[in-house]
Predict the structure.
Amino acid sequence: MSGRFFWFCVTLIGYVYAGYPALLTVLARLRPQPLFAPPADLPIVTLLIAAYNEQNVIAAKLSNSLALDYPRDRLQILVAADGSDDATPDIVADFADCGVELSYRPERAGKLAAITRALALARGEIIVLSDANNLYDAGALRALVAPFADPSVGATTGAKVIAKGDGALGDSEGLYWKYESYIKRQETRLSSCTGAVGEIMAVRRGLLDQPLLPEARLMADDLALAMHVLKQGYRVVYIPNARSIERVSASAQDEQERRARIVAQRFVLMRHSHRMLPLLNPLLVWQIVSHKYLRPFVPLAMIGALLANLAAVIRPAAQGGMLRLASPFNWVMLALQAVFYALAWMGGRNECRGIWGKALYIPAFLVNGNRAALVGLYRFLTGRHTSLWNRVQRRERESSASEQRRVNPSYRVLSGKENNP
């Protein structure tokens, strides 16, 4: 029995991390590569920036937004700063002369609620959702709006890129996002993305005017909006050349907290699948189950594989004494798991340097991410999950003028206050 259970757990882990991407790659090659020509007339775009207590980065974000390669008369920049009790609203007000608008009320109801309220002020045909702690490439908006010439496209999402120079943690998180971007690229080619990157996502205004299901308030905004678009029969398209550059989390603990919140909200989606999934599209349902539903169960499969392996090793000795050993295969599997977790422990103890540090941080990143998934599952089961978003601390240097110019050569200081905090 332990042998079958072991292989079930290993198969689940292998399918989630390797099998599903491999199947996607094969099936996607049967479809033509999508080509998106830029529209003849650029649509009016509202860049809606969620900014809860972002006084350290909001000025740099607004300067970056004002320097984007998009006609200024067709771009509205709107900041949703609900609940902020720092200087964020005041800093945004300093940019009023540049045309930046503010949506603010003191009460805090969560990121999705702040976005929904700010939509009443939005004038764009396309709503681009962004966060305050990331910077766009100059051509990101043009790339995001191009696919909307296809009437089947309801939303687009870009690539999240981790800024260089953040050590092994940044390298491992950057590798993770490259992996996720590959999956999104194949999903787009096959049919549609099953999710979006919340800090660089564009949605047709008409779809946002449709009321979200009440359950969406308990989910992350990017997941809730992506499911909302898919449920209405539209596609979500990944655009790799629309890039959002972001600093890595300040610590592995901050990243773990972020992942725990995401996993808890993903279980909310599972609980309300009958209302939120596009059930009339079996191909898309398979993609969502493979990409979104199975991954939170990987930590349980990892624990199950280890326990089953231990049982297979211990049982022979318990039944026939120490002279009766388990099969060499079981010992090899147990040794491989022990080495993997030992490397993860070494990588998680401190910020290792050099190529070995990067190698050690990959298992550490995987183990920490799956440990966060267990925390998210616990919070979901105990009802402790929340839609409220707490700002994750990012590495410093994220708002410096030098970094702005590296992302966008046309960057210039647009406000004398707080532009280089």
About this structure: The chain is about 50% helix and 10% strand.
